[in-house]
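Q: Can I borrow your eye for a moment on a structure tokenisation matter? Would you mind producing a protein record, from residues through to fold? Write it directly below this note and I will take it from there.
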Amino acid sequence: MTAAKETKKQREQREREEIAAAAAAERFAELNRDDYAQLSPKPRRRAREAALLLLYGVDFGQDDFAHAGELLADIGLSDDNAAFASLLAANTTARLAELDQRIAGYTRQWDVERISAVDRCVLRLALYELFYLPDTPANIVINEAIELAKKFGSDDSGAFVNGVLDAIYNKELKQSNGEV
């Protein structure tokens, strides 16, 4: 009989813990929704912001995108824009060494690791999109990157990102896009 009472007590305790955990998870989700309310209402920009958040996590040692689905759902992206954000983040991450080498070629006085994490992630994201997703016009990619840098970076981030991307565009992409 004592064992039955203990089992009942244990079950009641487990149920209380589950209810508390569910309440905590809901509160956490609510706080995240409040944080994400500051993201852009424009769907494509919001997807780029989500990709930037994922890249920023990778920059700080998160190896995988196991949490990506949850993050993208919390942010409230449509399936198409969530897929776009995932594609940007995953494929940018897969090419970090190449993108960093390209950035290093245009930031002569700055080692890539000395560039602020936000600026570095914005540059990587924009370069991936410029070189591997040519359907989006370069001026849109560069403008979106500048806006991301202004929103998430320092006061000088927009100008810095603009300068680096403009130099790369003018030297490596302008002629291949038929511009003079």
In short: The radius of gyration is 22 Å. The chain has a mean pLDDT of 82.
